Amino acid sequence: MSFVHKKRLTLFDYINYLLLGLISLLCVFPFIYVFSVSLTHPDAYIPFTFYLFPEQFSLASYKYILSTNTFLDALRSTALITGIGTVLNLIFTFTFAYALSKKHMLGRKLMLGCVVFTLLFNAGIIPNYLLVKELGLLNSYWALIWPTLTNAWSLIVVKSFMDSIPEELEDAARIDGCNDLFVFLRIILPVSMPALAAFTLFFAVAHWNTYFNALIYLTDAKKWTLQVLIKTLVVDSDSAGVAQAGAAEDKIIPEETIRMAAVVLAMLPILAVYPFLQKYFAKGVMLGSIKG
User: Fold this and answer.
1) Other C-beta atoms within 10 Å of 54: how many?
2) Distances (CA, A) of 270 to 242, 277, 292
3) pLDDT digit string, tens, across residues 123-155
4) Average pLDDT, stretch 238-248?
5) Which residues contact 231 (CB under 8 A, 6 or more apart)?
């Protein structure tokens, strides 16, 4: 007969749980405030008041912000950059990592050394800007995609994952007549689905949250990404921000509810997708970080 001994909670445990609970509440309260203000009816909104729940429920702010051309242009730009950028990131990262995982490839050590070098050293903002300018990519969406096709950390993790794939799988495929391209498409990619799903989310979130590069490379306001528009709304809220968002001369809806609605709409897609792909984060990255 087995007995289960329960651990007795000490005073330290109670204090620890209390502090962690308070810290969690402090992290959650800003999100609650943003959602509450964005859902508050314009007539019921009182400035400089904390809203835990909307005083009077209304979607007027969302209808207003979705009717403005500037927000829709920013949403379209962000979706385009995220879609194209994520696909190209996956193609370049997984094909390059597959090549680096082949020990017999000529120049493999040199290329791997160059990858590790970029992990330790970065050219900086000014050389990157001059490079983008010389390539003629300023004020173009490609300025946010081409310089970030892949990165050293992603390559190393994916390469380590592919190193753990048994070579017998590839040998069996080659005996059946498959060349390197078909081995990669029909054997490596299906086996790499956990890593593929994890890095799809990594790259998509990175492109969706593009802010600094969009701020320095995109000069046309019609090509702004959502994050740049949100910064304009929140930081420059007294002047250009609300005007660029399409505020009318007779402001019926408070500016604060418009800003909060824009913030919610900007983070809503990631919040909706993340819970379904969260399990792939740990699984994909851990499989790529341990060989064997």
Assistant:
1) 17
2) 24, 10, 33
3) 888 888 998 999 888 999 999 999 889 999 889
4) 45
5) 211, 215
Report the alpha-carbon distance of residue 208 to residue 225 in Å, rounded.
8
Is CATH 1.10.3720.10 the classification given to domain 60-292? yes
Helix/strand/coil for 190: helix
Residue listed under structure tokens 């420059």: 236
pLDDT at 67: 82
Q: What is the 3-state secondary structure (H, E, C) of 109-169?
A: HHHHHHHHHHHHCCCCHHHHHHHHHHCCCCCCHHHHCHHHCCCHHHHHHHHHHHHCCCHHH
* Residue that has been written with the tokens 């970080």 in this structure: 289
pLDDT digits (tens, 9 = 90+) for 34-81: 888 888 887 777 776 776 777 788 888 888 888 888 888 888 999 999
Q: Is 82 helix (H, G, I), strand (E, B) or coil?
A: helix
Radius of gyration of the chain (CA): 25
Q: Where are the alpha helices (DSSP H) in the chain?
A: 11-38, 60-66, 69-100, 108-120, 125-134, 152-163, 167-175, 180-183, 189-191, 193-208, 212-217, 226-234, 240-244, 255-289
C-alpha to C-alpha distance for 261 and 66, rounded to whole angstroms: 9
Whole-number pLDDT of residue 87: 95
* Structural domain boundaries in the chain: 60-292
In the 8-state DSSP scheme, what is residue 5?
A: P
Instruction: Give me the chain's average pLDDT, please.
Output: 81
Residue 74 sits at φ, ψ, to 5 deg, of -65, -40
Closest-CA residue to 144 (of 219, 232, 210): 210
Helices 69-100 and 193-208, axial angle in degrees (round to 10): 140
> Cα torsion at 238, 240, 241, 247 (round to 10°)?
90
